[in-house]
Amino acid sequence: MRCPKSAVTMRNEELLLSNGTANKMNGALDHSDQPDPDAIKMFVGQIPRSWSEKELKELFEPYGAVYQINVLRDRSQNPPQSKGCCFVTFYTRKAALEAQNALHNIKTLPGMHHPIQMKPADSEKSNAVEDRKLFIGMVSKKCNENDIRVMFSPFGQIEECRILRGPDGLSRGCAFVTFSTRAMAQNAIKAMHQSQTMEGCSSPIVVKFADTQKDKEQRRLQQQLAQQMQQLNTATWGNLTGLGGLTPQYLALLQQATSSSNLGAFSGIQQMAGRGRPLVQEI
Questions:
Q1: Does the keyword Membrane apply (predicted)?
Q2: Residue closest to 115 by CA, chosen among 175, 45, 43, 42
Q3: What pTM value is reported for the model?
Q4: Which residues are CB-contacts of 257 (< 8 A; sequence separation ≥ 6)?
Q5: Which domains, and CATH codes, for the chain?
């Protein structure tokens, strides 16, 4: 004869069943409480404002178990209203990237005029991205993001692909592609740089590492130097003999500043100009 279950035993069984159901609803079945260490938090835009976490979970789950979904809401409204975007974190990095590859700029949700925008959240970005982000130039203006993904996916997992567009929404003929590792990016450069001339382009495709913030600052300083040189007396530059009138100190700084490896000299030129020191010796 079987003994009847105690109230405590029955309650424990209810809790186990409830927890199991909750884990399944949260997409956490067969997973630990936390996502993998290299999991990516993704920002997702162009979603219907009427959608809740439940509808979004159904959208994302085909690509992997979902750890967390957070719909961004306007708290000034009562009740708070969706802003049409959210954050989603999968348990694995692989699931997040597969979802991005399948949805970003490809799938348009009901009632929306533009496709889903999905990319790593700003909090996930770091300087390391610069080590694996490529600039792609001389791209056919007929290409979209999916075309670029197909072209570069043989070299590895792509985290982000973006075509530069003008205010009119038309392609500018260039793009950025970010791979998961620097090695993947290097392989893409070796195989793709100047490998073909795309439709409507005058030169072969350009594939190189995207400019870092330091590169951009260096180019800005060089542009300022060029403007400074243009402001010199046109008569001096128009007559080569006039170069002899430049002070030796200024000529030395000018020679250093025109070298990309020594931009500190440019500040010296600016200081000379700021102190009112004559750039041309009196004759």
A1: no
A2: 45
A3: 0.43
A4: 225, 263, 265, 266, 268, 269
A5: 41-121 (3.30.70.330), 127-209 (3.30.70.330)
